Amino acid sequence: MNLSFSEFFNLSSKYKYVNDDQGTSNETETTTNFNLTGYADIPMSAMFSIQPGISLQGKGAKYFDNGTTQFEDNVLAIEIPVNLLANIPVGPGKFYLGGGPYAGFNVAGQRKVTSGNNTSESDLTFGNDAGDNIKSTDFGVNFLAGYQLSSGLNFGAGYGLGLTNLRPNSNSGTNVEQNNRVLSFTVGFAF
Predict the structure, then answer these.
(1) Nearest CA among 142, 122, 144 for reference residue 133
(2) What mean pLDDT comes out for the span 67-80?
(3) Which pLDDT score is estimated for 127?
(4) Is the pLDDT of residue 47 over 90?
(5) Quick check: 2 pLDDT over 70?
(6) Per DSSP, what are the bridge partners of residue 1?
(7) Span 158-176, pLDDT tens digits
(8) What pTM was estimated for this model as a whole?
(9) Are 189 and 5 in contact (CB under 8 A)?
(10) What radius of gyration do the chain's Cα atoms show?
(11) CA 187 to CA 31: how far, in whole Å?
């Protein structure tokens, strides 16, 4: 079993909105944030391993309301991923490819609202009640690929596909769905 630590940034963190009542589907603009992850690499065979871990993820998005007011959400989430990896020896290391489910818990966040020359900031509220901005729990699937040198240094990329509708039920009279979409890049070291 190897213990690993990786950090870097989430290049593209955005929401995907689907409004069934209007028949529309669009993605918001991206924000740049961070990720910090620790995980155990447990070999299951010569080629496969399982990686349970814990991750601190910066997520969020930029989006416009009626084309004039810009909202920018920055959310801090704790994620617990469990990934299955295929490890293929190549050169002085191994190429890895895999994925698996995650459970995420939104713990803090801010919303910045810009309308014309006016800007305001407020803390996000988490829950499923009237007045909440975003749900507190997120479930999704990770997809990973990268290369690990025999020294333990590794470079990777991942995509987090949120499956939970993060929009609180009481926030809208219409059927609107909001999901996370996160493209991340990492540099890490396995001990």
Answers:
(1) 122
(2) 90
(3) 92
(4) yes
(5) no
(6) none
(7) 999 999 988 887 555 556 7
(8) 0.85
(9) yes
(10) 18
(11) 20
The CB density around residue 89, as the number of other CB atoms within 10 Å, is: 11
Segments in the chain forming alpha helices (H): none
Beta bridge partners of 84: 50, 99
Beta strand segments in 45-117, E: 48-65, 69-90, 93-115
User: In what helix (H) or strand (E) does residue 167 lie, and over which residues does it extend?
Assistant: none
Asked: is 2-190 a CATH 2.40.160 domain? The reply is yes
Of 28, 46, 29, 36, nearest to 9 by C-alpha is 36
Residue count of the chain: 191
d(CA 123, CA 174): 25
Residue 105 · residue 159 · CB < 8 Å: no
Record the tokens describing residue 125, joined without a space: 């509220």
List, in sequence order, every residue forming a beta bridge with 5; answer none if it has no partner: 38, 189
Tens of pLDDT, residues 22-34: 666 666 788 888 8
Q: Name the one residue in this structure whose structure tokens are 């470079």.
A: 155
Q: How far is CA 76 from the centre of its chain?
A: 10
Residue 90 one-letter amino acid = V
Q: How do the domains of the chain map onto residue ranges? A: 2-190
- Which sign does the torsion angle of CA 17, 21, 22, 23 carry? positive
